[in-house]
Specification:
Blueprint lengths: L4 H15 L9 H8 L3 H13 L3 E4 L5 E4 L8 H7 L27 H17 L2 H6 L4 H7 L1
Length: about 150
């Protein structure tokens, strides 16, 4: 499985927004870019996609920037990654194609293993919210057992 910088940077930027008051006030992208060491122009491209996906809202004018469109506990990591058009899959096979990951017809012998791993990764990322990222809570089973 491959997660490119597009998905990683989008999650980092959204977590930064959540951590620095993006639920209550507009946070300028320049601040996010500086703190996360991400190019401002690259962030602008990512936030355009995040805005289209209705994960953030833009505020114009003095004091402008971006705010979270929903609470941090209502935005999941998989939503963020999908919003920037980052596929989360562990196989090289194209969905709906008759060709396998090896370029031949049929499937490779380990296809179902990689497909199941991709499903579990997506399920995990769908269970992690921005609030979880900010608070560094990633093991839901341990959190439930501790309660």
């Amino acid at each position: 499985m491959r997660l490119t910088s597009k998905g990683r940077y989008a999650v980092m930027a959204m977590a930064d927004l959540a951590l620095h008051g993006g639920g209550e006030r507009a946070v300028p992208l320049q601040e996010v870019a500086r703190r996360q060491e991400i190019s401002l122009s690259y962030l602008e491209q990512l936030f355009s996609r995040l805005r289209q996906a209705r994960l953030v809202t833009g505020v114009r004018g003095p004091g402008g920037g971006y705010r979270l469109a929903r609470a941090g506990n209502a935005i999941t990591v998989d939503e963020i990654i999908e919003a920037v058009n980052e596929p989360i899959k562990a196989t090289r096979c194209e969905e709906g194609s008759g060709k396998s990951c090896m370029g031949k017809s049929g499937r490779c012998i380990a296809h179902n293993l990689w497909q199941e791993m991709g499903v579990r990764i997506r399920d995990f990322l769908a269970s992690v919210t921005l609030d979880d990222v900010v608070a560094q809570r990633f093991d839901r089973a341990a959190n439930v057992a501790a309660e």
